[in-house]
Amino acid sequence: MQAKEIQNRLAENLKRIRKSQKLTQFQLAEMIGMSEETIKNVELSRAWPSEKTLSQISEALNVDVYHLFMPIPASFSVNQEIKENIKQVNSLI
Q: How far apart are CA 15 and CA 21, in angstroms?
């Protein structure tokens, strides 16, 4: 696996987990004493976080660090598509 793939996986997982906990980038940044720009750059795969930052992020999100690097289950993508389709249908009703 290439470094860019790992970085993209980290970015996707961080964003997914943060949003599932209904946190904004700003709120997460405040929780760990970092700038919102730091979180944004990690989520956009523009920057690698330090080990300390990764530890702080995982602690704030209450997940083990390795969860940030796990493959995203295919069912998650399918479930997102289903949710979007349901929203579209509901907006038409």
A: 10
Name residues of the chain where pLDDT drops below 50: 75
pTM of the complete model:
0.75
How many Cα atoms sit within 13 Å of 2 on the Cβ side? 3
H or E stretch at 93: none
Q: Is 12 left (phi over 0), alpha (psi -120 to 50) or beta?
A: alpha
User: Each residue of 33-72: b (16+ CB within 10 Å) or e?
Assistant: ebeeebbebbbeeebebeeebbebbbebbebeeeebeeee
